[in-house]
Design goal:
Elements lengths: L8 E7 L7 H9 L3 H12 L4 E7 L5 H13 L3 E12 L12 E12 L2 E11 L9 E2 L4 E7 L2 E7 L12 H11 L9 H8 L20 H10 L4 E5 L13 H10 L4 E6 L12 E11 L5 H9 L6 E2 L4 E8 L3 E7 L8 E7 L8 H18 L6 H11 L4 E8 H10 L10 H10 L3 E8 L4 H4 L1 E2 L1 E5 L14 E4 L2 E4 L2 E4 L6 E2 L6
Parallel strand pairs: 12-16
Antiparallel strand pairs: 1-2, 2-3, 3-4, 4-5, 6-11, 7-8, 9-15, 10-11, 10-15, 11-13, 13-14, 16-17, 17-19, 18-23, 19-20, 20-21, 21-22
Helix pairs in contact: 1-2, 9-10, 11-12
Length: 509
């Protein structure tokens, strides 16, 4: 039984409206001013919560809590027991039965008692995202979490957050739990399950992690967990003394491709070293769940106009402003600026994928650019306004390419729904032909322009590539290219509607 369904015993139910309620006073009075819980309360304030329900969870009524305490007792003889509170945030006032849509979030705070003192951490939390698509925040990895309290039940959309206890689970555990909860049908995994797969056994010091061991989960253990849950991934490792990431590979392109494909990622970096020790710093791993977008970004145009950094096209990633991340040390839903995590600090990336693919985003984009160059040279104009504009942008190397993995059903639904400004739609009769052509998952590279993509989220069309290289070593050939007024197989255009620009494919957010 999870903390979201365990029986709760009411400790208090307070109205939280200003000026009578203070998050600071509340957190100081009950939770020793815990910094992560303060962060979560601040998010609840942004969501305009009007009450907070605090319930105590008893181990005898929650097998998950019993299992966690048994693991701690096995790991350290100093453990004496724990107290657990489940805090639920409502849009409704106290003592008024909340409606399902009035649930704003919850946090499970676990206070562990040791001989040397008490240590608290946020075992888990789900809070509605404060910002959404209208604020240019894209959190494709959120899902619905059902919560049952003693005063009612509701559903909370969001991404799970968790904080390590540094005894039985560390930063990699909580990062894995966050990303797996957004993918797996059960919406959750337990730390005992993760440890069993990774070979962590608290009874043996050489198989333990966390405090006193100097060990976290190693890459091989992380990969064993991802493989156990059948989660495809691509790994980039940059450990200068072990394996140097080639200079031509930019880890952020892989990270962006995962996020745009509706999958989270795991980002590892090196912390500052202790100057007195003269050694490398420790490592930290955080989940990346989404991104923000700046449609007025100066950099994409300025890079070319002033600094002549011409790669033949604009990457849509250039308009990305920040990544949305959880950090178990700091709290949920932080924005990590795109260029803040430099190559110097970057150490490890697991970009999770909807399906396995031997083609990387860089290879897919290079193939798309090459194909589009051939198309505009072979068919430089059709006398159709928007096709001819595409050709002009291709000629001047000014196209915008947005690349991600998509499944067949998502794309076919997209084709069924798109229309250009004149109301022209893609013909239903052609969709059956495309359905026969496409595999379950494939690379989709959307084709747009700097004035079209960031502002109005529109495109000329798209090009579809297989996810893998042919086993016989032959060239990777696109399934087709759709542009205004045509669909092209090989280099042969077939006239087809719509003849204008159409919306980008958007994953459900």
């Amino acid at each position: 039984m999870s903390f979201r369904s365990a029986p709760g015993h009411v400790v208090l139910w307070k109205n939280t409206e200003l000026p009578d309620f203070s998050n600071f006073v509340f957190c100081e009075a009950y939770y020793r001013a815990h910094s992560v819980l303060r962060r979560i309360l601040s998010l609840a304030r942004k969501l305009q919560f009007r009450s907070v329900l605090v319930e105590e969870i008893h181990a005898g009524e929650c097998p998950l809590l019993t299992a966690e305490n048994e693991a701690l007792a096995s790991r350290t003889k100093d453990f004496k027991g724990s107290a657990v509170h489940r805090l639920t945030f409502f849009r409704s006032r106290a003592n008024t039965p909340p409606q399902p849509h009035e649930f704003l979030g919850y946090a499970v705070f676990k206070l562990d008692h040791f001989n040397g003192g008490d240590v608290g951490h946020v075992f888990e939390a789900v809070v509605r995202p404060v910002r959404g698509v209208k604020q240019n925040n894209f959190l494709h990895t959120q899902r619905q979490f059902d919560l049952t309290t003693s005063v009612g039940s509701g559903t909370i959309p969001g991404a799970m957050y968790a904080q390590q206890n540094n005894f039985t689970f560390v930063c990699a555990h909580v990062a894995l739990r966050a990303v797996l909860s957004s993918i797996l049908p059960a919406a959750d995994v337990t730390y005992s399950e993760l440890n069993a797969v990774a070979g962590v056994d608290h009874k043996y010091p050489d198989k333990s992690v966390g405090k006193g061991t100097g060990r976290g989960l190693q890459p091989a253990q992380i990969e064993s967990i991802l493989k156990h849950y059948s989660v495809p991934f691509r790994r980039l490792l940059h450990e200068p003394h072990v394996k140097e990431l080639p200079a031509k590979i930019e880890y952020q392109a892989e990270l962006y491709a995962a996020i745009e494909s509706g999958r989270p990622a795991l980002l590892g970096f090196e912390l500052a070293a202790d100057p007195t020790m003269g050694a490398a710093g420790p490592r930290h791993l955080i989940p990346v769940l989404g991104h923000t977008f700046n449609d007025d970004a100066w950099v994409p145009d300025a890079e070319r106009f002033y600094f002549f950094r011409d790669q033949g096209y604009f990457r849509s990633e250039a308009w990305l402003s920040a990544y949305v991340v959880h950090d178990d040390n700091l709290g949920p839903y932080y924005c990590l600026p795109r260029h803040y995590m430099s190559r110097q600090s970057f150490r490890l990336l697991y970009s999770l994928q909807p399906a396995s693919s031997s083609l990387s985003i860089s290879e897919a984009e290079a193939l798309a650019f090459s194909t589009l160059t051939s198309i505009h040279k072979t068919v430089p104009a059709l006398g159709l306004g928007w096709y001819d504009r595409f050709a002009a942008y291709a000629l001047t190397k000014s196209l915008v390419l947005r690349s991600f993995q998509v499944n067949r059903r998502q794309y076919l639904d997209h084709l069924l729904n798109i229309q250009d400004p004149r109301g022209q739609r893609f013909p239903v009769t052609e969709i059956a032909n495309i359905e026969k052509t496409l595999p379950e998952h494939f690379w989709l590279i959307e084709i747009s322009a700097p004035e079209l993509f960031p502002m109005s989220r529109q495109k000329f069309g798209e090009i579809a590539f297989p996810p893998d290289r042919p086993v016989d070593g032959s060239d990777v050939v696109p399934f087709f290219t759709r542009l205004p007024g045509v669909i092209i197989r090989g280099l042969t255009p077939q006239r087809i509607q719509p003849e204008g620009y159409t919306p980008l494919l958007t994953l459900r957010n």
